[in-house]
Fold this protein.
Amino acid sequence: MKSPQIDLNTIKEVLKKLSFLKNNLALLVPILIVIFAALLFIPTTLLSARLKATMQAQSVKSAADIDRLIKEVAAAGQAQAMEGYLNAYKQDPCDMATLMRQTTMRELLTYHIFPDTNETSPLLFDPVRREYMAGVEAMIRRMGAGSPPSDGDIDAALEKSRTRSVYGGRTTSGAAGGGPAGYGAGTGRNFRLLTETDRKIVGKLCEDRARGLRIYASPAELDGYSFWSDWKFEDKKKSIRQSWYWQMAYWILEDITDTIVKMNEGGTCVLDSPVKRITAVSMTQSKQATRMIGGRRRMRKTTTDQFPSYAINLKTAMAAPPCTGRYCNEDTDSMHFEIYVLVSADKVMPFIQELCSAKTHKFRGWYGDKPEQTFKHNQITVLESSIIPIDLEDPEHGSYRYGNEAVVGLDLICEYLFIKAGYEEVKPELVKNDILGVSDEEATN
């Protein structure tokens, strides 16, 4: 077999071309790159198309599926969270209604009268009288309250003085109205008529008494105490009404007591207590009946013909008309009361805020036979307020000592709301008829 013949001419041609590259070496590298790229372009394009199809079929589709599933899971979780929120939102009105009822679920002075008893004995109402008076006396002790020196105390102190003046001695004709000299017309001793020495003696006596008290007050200033002191049984219907309405008044007195105790908790005595004196708390008088008369405030004594009542209409309201526009309605009962106190001038607003703040009370069921529970209530709204300047030189304040702070009189007409759903089951039918304007004769017929 013959070996292939090499065409010398062809070789020469190739060498001539290579000699061109020899003379132009700088072009060799780009030429080689172009050749290599051309060789790779076709397989790379084919592989890229196949890889793209694979990624679209596997990775991209899987990612889309995962994203869709995540959204579905989030939506399911959101629904659960929304369900919890809606349940809580649904529960809020129920809780609110319960809390509102609890504000008027309070302890009673006696558990043997309400709602309606078949007993007719007058002795049935005696526990109300005893418990009311004992409760007011306990409030006085809790407030650390007491009275300034009496006229007898002052006279006894002056009798010990070596120096007597014509105004310091006793007489039966030196004062208007036949009273002792040095006295205003039934309002207290006018110390401006005493000698300087006697004024110092009285001043020391009064200051010592003030240092032993937290506030000036006596049971007589808290409405209802005098009423029950003089109470006599007349008939059952009237006694039921009296017992019920004074029960409402007693709850109001508890809130007033809590307010004063809280306000004065940082003080040591009247001289540094924010609330200096309770002049009057009235559940039974109209505002006009307790206004300043002859320069001094006068409160008529509450008799057994007078007792608290609900604010059913304009006629029965102390504030006429009340700024809240509220009277007794299908949901609430409203009662008005008036409080007149002497306070430090810079404690007027704190006192009002404390009076209207939430407080706690106990409840053992409407028949007193349930485990004791503690509830909250917040039922007072101030309808009218007046700030009255105080003349400390006035005989009305002669035996009182209020400290070095400026003192003003604060007169408040307030509204107290009772939630009917809280106590309707024990409210006497007589009282329900009063609210509806139904007379006893109409109710009987």
